[in-house]
Task: inverse folding
């Protein structure tokens, strides 16, 4: 399988986890895209240095060939998938309504509502 196909598969998988599996829907929020923009800026600098100086090279037959600041577009797709998946899991773990803890009798209970939690 080519690097391009794997990159697209990674993005698709991260989107499925975000939108359908964990339902954090980060890609629908402005804060995610602001955060991603900041990370992308530094990713382009790092990729530009590594690929522009030849520290990292790619087999031309496994990539599309489109580059942004020396970085193959596939690197940016992988970066997007990794960032989205990491933030999705992080946000999901921090949401009290998704977490379950065991009570003293072993029964599953919801944690107490904190400030800003929706009323149920």
Result:
């Amino acid at each position: 399988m080519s690097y391009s196909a794997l990159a697209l598969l990674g993005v698709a998988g991260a989107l499925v986890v975000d939108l359908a599996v964990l339902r954090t829907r980060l890609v629908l929020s402005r804060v995610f895209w602001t955060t991603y923009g900041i990370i992308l800026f530094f990713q382009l600098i790092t990729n530009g240095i590594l690929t522009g100086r030849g520290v990292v090279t790619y087999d031309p037959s496994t990539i599309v060939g489109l580059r942004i600041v020396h970085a193959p577009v596939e690197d940016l797709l992988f970066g997007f998938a990794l960032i989205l998946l990491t933030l999705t899991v992080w946000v999901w773990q921090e949401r009290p309504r998704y977490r379950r803890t065991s009570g003293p009798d072993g029964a599953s209970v919801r944690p107490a509502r904190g400030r800003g939690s929706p009323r149920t």
